[in-house]
Amino acid sequence: MNRLMKRLTPGIALVLLIGNLAGIGTAGASGDEAAYKMAHADAVAALDMAKKVGGEWRDARWKKSKAVKVEVEGKTKKMSNLAAAEAYAKMGDYEKATQYADIAKFQGVAGYQQAMDQKNAGPQF
Fold it and tell me: Which of 20, 30, 37, 100 supports an S-S bond with 85, CB 3.0-4.6 Å?
């Protein structure tokens, strides 16, 4: 467990740092919009980190994902969690946008952890 924490700590610190830096430009935004922008930046950072180690999950950002159904302009569309967050933000529903951005962030962090845990996986002889 101690070894795992040593490997995860720099990655988690990076995600938190990027999230805090992303909040700098949100001074003029409403509270919900600022929270969404910070959550979106955190999610993108976590997904980029997971992608670098080959651990990005399909439903987090994949363009052909059908994880979430969102009604856009009278039509129901299926999309990834990050795309759903962006769609809700465009519609002005920052509460739902933040929820889906948080889900995408979780998927990024968990995908990174999964990739790191399994990087030496293989048959045991």
Answer: 100
